[in-house]
């Protein structure tokens, strides 16, 4: 009764689905500008990565420092792309109508996942074959006799490690390619059943995504300190991916709106719901990050507490507090307000802050490893050689930005013939 | 500064609660509500057996203050929860548990969180009821036989006599113009 009545009422207020054709005009769903931004991104990438490599010869830098800084940036950017993949999968699985006009940006981000995996594999592979365990201590022959490492030998050995990286690359290429090709094929053919196909493939795709992301986070991040183990680690990296992914989607959509695109296709109603997702993943990250810390703190097992111990001394405690404040309290309290979620301009600021704090999170995970090596520089704070981290993050995210912009310019900004498009255009939050 | 309101009574001396009109479809009542809103009425309501999306906007209703109240009470609850544990474990009855320091923040988080949720949940429910004037045991409209159909297959608008703009004739005329059927006076106060 209720839904019937609501439909009748809708058809009175709106003019039926035919009248949306004008919203799909070329100038509204194609982005051709941004040449200046593209050049800026490329320059940023070249300058940033160049400066990072230069850091190897700086007095406050060094080879180890550069490897760590580059991995901070690469792991952060990979998380953003994985976030895009997760959001695409979950939107298909939930048969979400409201987000159809945002989904193409999620697909664009997902498409770059294999590329960013390659970028994030540079440091571990370099460390494996050239520098022999400078950053990833388990690759270091000096630790071969370590009992903990011997226990983990079945998993942490060069052969299996490389095979796993290859598996992630294949799986993520399949997932990203599948999601993008189904969506783009629907743009051309208008076949509505491709939506069902995407939904079906997202079911096993989500399982593959969850397992591969968790194992990739073990390989790329947790194995840096082979003594550390946490069953929450995969969830932690996934939470960061969803957190930074939705922030990037909102950032792209809001900037496209500012560029005069997506008129009538993405409006405050969509930003409102995307803002709710930003809020949700802020809380989710905080919940699992605290759970991981809390259990380790409470059980007080030396093997585990060592990891947090180095992160609570010599100035690293300030990064810890910054994460408590900036990864939870600030976005939580700001995104509580309805007006913020409905304002694209304010969401741009929130999304930029979320991306900044996301890279700070990766910094907190990886960079203390530089100073915990017995044969490395001992006990340096987070600010020592900090410029190399900034250069690396700017450089690699400049690369990601350039690739994303290229991708955004080469495909329509929304799925043009998705059967749920009218639902997305008419989407409204009634509360 | 309360303006003296005119009190209307029927011929038999009963006070007048308002004027009620029935509408056939959600679209009719939606558009009628927009007109009533634009006519400047403030004390009136739409009655329907199911939620009508967007009716709040058509009625010109302001957003509820409920979230703000709940946020304030919820944060108070979380603050009290933290304060309680800090005082008990860190000041009043210090106890060594697993060699952890006194009054440390980590173990306080779950209960701080729980009390925040508890206060928010209770304040949401209680303030929602209070803002809606509930619980309420009777309503003048319930005396109307035809109004009872509003819980089944009828939609209605009732403009109250307590409204500053209320006038028995003009209000009736407005509802008639908007396509209301079975327009009737409602007795009671």
Percent of sequence in beta strands of chain B = 5-15%
The profile of the biggest β sheet of chain B is: 4 strands, antiparallel
**Widest β-sheet, arrangement of strands of chain B:** 2-3-1-4
> Please, how many domains of chain A?
1
> What's the mean pLDDT score of chain B?
89
Structural class of chain A: mainly alpha
Q: Give the oligomeric state of the chains in this entry, treating copies of one chain as homo and distinct chains as hetero.
A: heterodimer
Number of strands of chain A: 0
Tell me the radius of gyration of chain B: 25 Å
Largest binding interface between chains: A-B, 19 and 19 residues
Low-confidence segments of chain B, given as residue ranges, are none
Characterize the main sheet of chain A: none
Rounded to the nearest angstrom, the radius of gyration of chain A is 22 Å
**What proportion of the residues of chain B is helical, as a percent range?**
40-55%
Order of helices and strands of chain A: HHHHHHHHHHHHHHHHH
| Secondary structure: helix percent of chain A | over 70%
Total discrete domains of chain B: 2
* Helix count, DSSP H or I runs of 4 or more residues of chain A: 17
Could you explain the architecture of this structure?
The complex is a heterodimer of chains A (431) and B (189). Chain A is mainly alpha-helical and 431 residues long. Chain A has one domain (39-425). Helix content of chain A is 71%, strand content 0%. Chain A contains 17 helices and no strands. Chain A has helices at residues 2-13, 26-29, 35-54, 63-93, 100-111, 113-129, 147-151, 158-189, 193-220, 233-258, 268-299, 302-309, 316-335, 338-341, 344-366, 386-410, 421-425. In chain A, helix 4 packs across helix 15, helix 5 crosses helix 10 (233-258) and helix 10 runs antiparallel to helix 11. The two termini of chain A are 21 Å apart. Chain B is α+β, with helices and mostly antiparallel strands and 189 residues long. Chain B has 2 domains: 16-62 and 137-187, no CATH class; 66-131, no CATH class. Chain B is 41% helix and 13% strand. Chain B has 5 helices and 4 strands, in the order βαβαααβαβ. Chain B has helices at residues 26-38, 55-59, 66-92, 109-131, 168-177, and strands at 16-23, 44-47, 155-160, 181-187. Chain B has a 4-stranded antiparallel sheet with strand order 2-3-1-4. In chain B, helix 3 (66-92) runs antiparallel to helix 4 (109-131). Chain B starts with 15 loop residues before the first strand and ends with a strand. Chain A binds chain B through residues 1-2, 5-6, 8-10, 12-13, 290, 293-294, 297-298, 300, 336, 338, 428, 430, and chain B through 25-27, 30, 49-54, 56, 63, 67, 71, 98-99, 106-107, 109.
């Amino acid at each position: 009764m209720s839904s019937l009545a609501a439909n009748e009422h809708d058809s009175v207020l709106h003019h039926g689905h035919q009248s949306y054709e004008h919203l799909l005009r070329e100038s509204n769903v194609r982005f051709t500008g941004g040449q200046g931004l593209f050049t800026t991104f490329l320059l940023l990438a070249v300058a940033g990565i160049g400066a990072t490599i230069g850091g190897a010869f700086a007095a406050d830098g060094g080879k180890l420092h550069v490897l760590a800084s580059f991995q901070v940036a690469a792991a952060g950017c990979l998380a953003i792309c994985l976030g895009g993949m997760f959001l695409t999968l979950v939107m298909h699985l939930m048969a979400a109508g409201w987000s159809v006009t945002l989904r193409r940006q999620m697909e664009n981000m997902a498409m770059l996942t294999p590329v960013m995996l390659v970028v994030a594999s540079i440091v571990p592979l370099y460390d494996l074959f050239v520098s022999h365990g400078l950053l990833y201590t388990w690759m270091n022959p000096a630790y071969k006799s370590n009992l903990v490492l011997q226990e983990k030998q079945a998993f942490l050995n060069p052969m299996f490690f490389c095979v796993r990286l290859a598996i992630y690359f294949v799986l993520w290429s399949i997932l990203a390619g599948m999601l993008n090709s189904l969506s783009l094929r629907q743009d051309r053919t208008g076949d509505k059943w491709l939506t069902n196909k995407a939904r079906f493939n997202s079911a096993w795709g989500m399982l593959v995504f969850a397992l591969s992301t968790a194992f990739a986070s073990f390989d790329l991040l947790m194995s840096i300190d082979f003594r550390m183990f946490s069953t929450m680690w995969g969830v932690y990296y996934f939470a960061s991916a969803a957190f930074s992914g939705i922030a990037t989607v909102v950032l792209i959509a809001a900037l496209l709106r500012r560029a005069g695109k997506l008129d009538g296709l993405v409006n405050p109603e969509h930003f409102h719901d995307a803002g709710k997702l930003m809020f949700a993943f802020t809380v989710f990250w905080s919940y699992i990050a605290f759970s991981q810390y809390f259990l380790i703190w409470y059980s007080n097992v030396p093997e585990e507490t060592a990891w947090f111990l180095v992160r609570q001394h010599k100035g690293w405690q300030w990064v810890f507090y910054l994460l408590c404040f900036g990864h939870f309290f600030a976005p939580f309290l700001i995104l509580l307000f309805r007006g913020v979620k409905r304002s694209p301009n304010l969401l741009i600021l929130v999304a930029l802050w979320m991306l900044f704090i996301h890279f700070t999170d990766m910094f907190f995970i990886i960079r203390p490893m530089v100073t915990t090596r017995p044969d490395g520089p001992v006990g340096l704070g987070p600010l020592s050689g900090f410029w190399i981290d900034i250069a690396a993050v700017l450089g690699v995210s400049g690369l990601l930005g350039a690739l994303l912009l290229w991708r955004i310019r080469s495909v329509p900004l929304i799925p043009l013939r998705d059967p749920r498009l009218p639902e997305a255009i008419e989407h409204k939050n009634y509360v | 500064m309360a303006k003296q309101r005119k009190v209307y009574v029927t011929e038999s001396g009963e006070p007048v609660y308002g004027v009620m009109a029935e509408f056939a479809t959600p679209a009719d009542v939606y558009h009628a509500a927009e007109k009533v809103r634009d006519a400047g009425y403030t004390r009136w309501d739409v009655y329907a057996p199911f939620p009508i999306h967007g009716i709040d906007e058509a009625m010109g209703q302001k957003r509820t203050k409920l979230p703000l109240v709940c946020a304030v009470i919820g944060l108070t609850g979380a603050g009290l929860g933290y304060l309680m544990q800090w005082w008990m474990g860190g000041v009043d009855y210090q106890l060594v548990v697993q060699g952890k320091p006194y009054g440390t923040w980590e173990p306080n988080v779950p209960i701080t969180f729980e009390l925040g949720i508890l206060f928010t949940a209770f304040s949401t429910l209680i303030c929602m009821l209070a803002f809606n004037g509930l619980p309420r045991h009777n309503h003048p409209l319930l005396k109307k036989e035809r109004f009872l159909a509003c819980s089944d297959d009828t939609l209605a608008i009732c403009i109250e006599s307590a409204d500053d703009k209320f006038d028995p004739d003009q209000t009736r005329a407005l509802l008639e113009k908007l396509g209301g059927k079975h327009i009737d006076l409602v007795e009671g106060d």
